[in-house]
Amino acid sequence: MATNAAFIPAQPNRVPDWLPGWRGMTGERLRSVVHGIAEPAFDVWHKERQFMNLQLHIVNHPDMIGHVLLDNHANYVRPKLTRQILKPVIGNGLLSAEGEDWRKQRRIVAPTFAPGAVARMAGLMAEATAEQLQSWPSETRRVDMAQVATDTTMAIIAKALFSGDPRLVTREAAKHIEAVISVAGQPRFLRMIGLQEYDPSPSMIRMRRSRRWLRETLGQLVRERGPDGGGDDFFGGLMRALYADLPPDEAAELAVDNALTFYAAGHETTATALSWAIYLLAGQPELQEEARAEALANLDGDVATLAERLPLLRQILDETMRLYPSALQLIREAVADDDMLGVPAKKGELMFIYPWIVHRHRQLWDNPDGFDHHRFAPENKAQQHRFQYIPFGVGPRICVGARFAITEALIILAHWLSVRRFSLPPGFRPLPYGNVTLRPKGGMPLLVQPL
Length: 451
Description:
The protein has helices at about 25-30, 60-70, 80-90, 100-110, 115-135, 145-160, 170-180, 190, 200-225, 235-245, 250-280, 285-300, 310-325, 355-360, 380, 400-420, and strands at about 45-50, 55-60, 75, 140-145, 330-335, 340, 345, 350-355, 420-425, 430-435, 440, 445-450. By secondary structure, it is of the alpha+beta class. The protein is built from 16 helices and twelve strands. The mean pLDDT is about 90. The chain has two domains: about 1-75 and about 335-390, no CATH class; about 80-325 and about 390-450, CATH 1.10.630.10.
């Protein structure tokens, strides 16, 4: 598929060759999965590596990805090490649970994110966005659009899932979430040996303080609502289902775990996608005008179907998530020996799938580092391998909130474009970084001009 992309957006520096595994536990490599990736990673289909006493497989071939995450997914589970790192942060909620615990929780939350349910929440998404727009400056000004995106998606999550509880939309709450997410996936040595509670580093001290605040705040919400859920929103339904199936103390603990999971991850991933999408549009004024025309032509229609009437903006969003995927790594552990399409995978070995690498792989994409939304035009998308584009994962553990996130992002972008023009400040080039989600380091300060 030929492309004519002229805009090459920002990305971190790469290194000429593979670095030793221990480098991932130091410096920028510790703080950001996408920093200092080896150039050969974007050419090979598979690479075996060793880290401490672990045998790792970097899996890039779409057929292998499908094998691990879908066709033989029962043999590849969330690693014990990953759960050991995540559980102290988010407990045993949907993101970290395994086996029957995961299946039970997935069945409980799935109806909230079904197509009809998401369509019914579209009006709420539009209202929350419009409320946020009222506070925007009336003159041209530099605005941190990453912060705006966070504020907007946090308000939507609070309204959609927690009946707009005011404790969940404060700047203090946002800072605590950032402190938790910024270190949530870091492979620190003390974490890997189960002693992360004793890590004396300032970032881990902040994380523990913020985790405590979030769990106490959400725990108070659970106690106030009681076993009957206290409402007909997502959280109320979740609580009723858990209390009906589990002892009260266990149900309350799991309610907090899932509240934290959906509250934090539910707005963070969409906020980062919005930050990168508006950056890409700011760097391409002509494309921005096309997208604005589409938004203005459709905003007066039925909001429940607005996202479906924005095909250009959807292509732009898809290309955004190709270049800047919110999920940075999918890790699985083999529970038994397996033939991974010609590559032996032994029990206990780890499979690493990096959407950042797969989405920029030179054997899968023409001009992989360049922006070209036409890749996702229907006729071109049909030619893609099923598993070469995986922004929400693949298989049974695909993100349950994917439809919600896409609908939300399109509605927000359409409203933003309908009232403001965005441009890049002179010399500005954002730096993608992160371990769990892909944030712009230092925010996304863009020039925002009234139409």
